[in-house]
Amino acid sequence: MSFPSSDAFSTPFTTATASAVLDAHGWDERWEAEFAPYADQGLVPGRVLRVDRGQCDLITATGTVRADTAFVTPHDPLRVICTGDWAAVETSGNPRYVKACLPRRTAIVRSTSSQRSEGQILAANVDHAVIAVSLAVEVDLGRIERFLALAWESGALPLVVLTKADLVPDPVVLAHLVQDVEATAPGVTVLTVSSHNGEGLDVLRAVTAGGTTVLLGVSGAGKSTLANALLGEDVMDVHATRDVDGKGRHTTTTRNLLLLPGGGVLIDTPGLRGVGLWDAATGVGQVFSEIEDHAGHCRFQDCAHEAEPGCAVLAAVESGELSERRLDSYRKLLRENQRIVAKTDARLRAEIRRDWKMKSAEGRANHAAKRGRA
C-alpha cells in the first residue's frame, strides 16, 4: 500500500482546502484546541495512516508526509504511535519527525501472545468497531464475545457484521444464526452482509460514513473484501479462503487508515489469531450485561456465581432464562482478564494469593471435617 507524497501537490492549498483535508480525516474543534500548544511551536497536525519500522505516513493539510517516529517511541508499548493517532509533525526538516501524539479518545487494545503479556494498540481514536464474522465456517460465539469485550472497553461502538451471507441460502438457517449472535451481543447491531451480491452494504456504508471505523476479525473473515466494497475499488489484496476449513491468509499485513468515498475513514487491520484481553473488565461486563443484571440480585455482593446460596445468576441458569454457555464464557473471560491485570498490579496479585490461601484452608478444613465424621 502506498500513499501520495506531499511533493505531489504542485500548487499551495487554500486555507479552506487545507481545513477540508483534515476535517475529512476526523479533525474537529476539540483536536484543534488540544493541538494549540504545538501550533505555537511551528508544528503541523497530521493523522497517522500507517506505521512501518520506525516511520509513519501521515495525512496533513498539504498532503501525505513520511516522518520518523524516534521522538515518540516510549518503552511502554501502550504509548507507541499507532494508526489513527493525531500527531504534531515537524515538516521543515529532512528527515521529518513526529514530535508528539495528542491524547487518544479511544484505543483498541489486546494482550499480546508473548510471555510478558504486554498490551498492543491495534487502532486509535475509533468511533465504530466492526467485528467481521464469516458465515462460511461455523460461527464461534466465544470469539465474538472476546472481540466485543475489546470493542466495548475501547470506548468505540461495536457492530457485528456477518460476512459471506450469500453462502447461507436458506433464510431460516440464516435467521437462526443471526438470533444466536444477537443473543451473544446484547445491545449490539448484528448485520448480514454479502460483498458478492451487495446485501447489507448500504446500511454498513451509512454507519461508516461518520467518524472512524476499524475492521476487526480473524483471517478469512472477509475484512479486506469488505473494505474494498466500502471503498468502491480494489485497494486491499484479497485471497480466497481454503475450502477445507474456511481459513484465509493474512492479506492485510499492516494497519491502514483509508478515506471512504461517502465520508468517514476506515482502518483495516490484519487478521488476529489471538484475541487476548487487556484490562477489559468493563468491556466484559458490557458483553455479559444480562449476567451483571442478575448478579445485582444475588444475596452476597461478592458472589462468585459458583455454588453460593441465594445466587440469582445460578437461579437464572436453572430456569433457562440464562444460557449456561454464556455463564461459562463470562467466568472464563473474567479469570483471564484478572490474570492479565494481576501481572501489572502488585496489590491485586496479593489479593489473589490471599483468596487462594483462604480457599485452600477452607478446603483442607472441610476435608478434615469429613474424615472426622467418617
- The CATH topology of the largest domain turns out to be Rossmann fold
The proportion of residues forming helix, as a percent range, comes to 25-40%
Overall 3D geometry? globular
Radius of gyration: 24 Å
Outline the biggest β-sheet: 6 strands, mixed
Identify the strand order in the major beta sheet. Answer: 10-9-8-11-13-12
How far is the first residue's CA from the last residue's CA?
73 Å
Average pLDDT metric? 83
CATH superfamily label of the largest domain? P-loop containing nucleotide triphosphate hydrolases
Number of strands: 13
Strand content: 15-25%
Poorly predicted regions are: 1-13, 239-252
What order do the helices and strands come in, and which of them pair?
Blueprint: H1 15-24, H2 29-39, E1 44-52, E2 55-60, E3 63-68, E4 86-90, E5 97-101, E6 107-111, E7 119-124, E8 128-134, H3 141-154, E9 157-163, H4 171-184, E10 189-192, H5 201-208, E11 212-216, H6 223-231, E12 256-259, E13 265-268, H7 281-287, H8 289-295, H9 312-319, H10 324-342, H11 346-373
Parallel strand pairs: 8-9, 8-11, 9-10, 11-13
Antiparallel strand pairs: 1-2, 1-4, 2-3, 4-5, 6-7, 12-13
Provide a descriptive summary of the structure in words:
Mean pLDDT is 83; it is low at 1-13 and 239-252. The protein is built from eleven helices and 13 strands. It has 374 residues and is α/β, with parallel strands linked by helices. The chain has three domains: 6-101, OB fold (Dihydrolipoamide Acetyltransferase, E2P); 107-268, 3-Layer(aba) Sandwich (Rossmann fold), CATH 3.40.50.300; 288-365, Probable gtpase engc, domain 3 (Ribonucleotide Reductase Protein R1, domain 1).
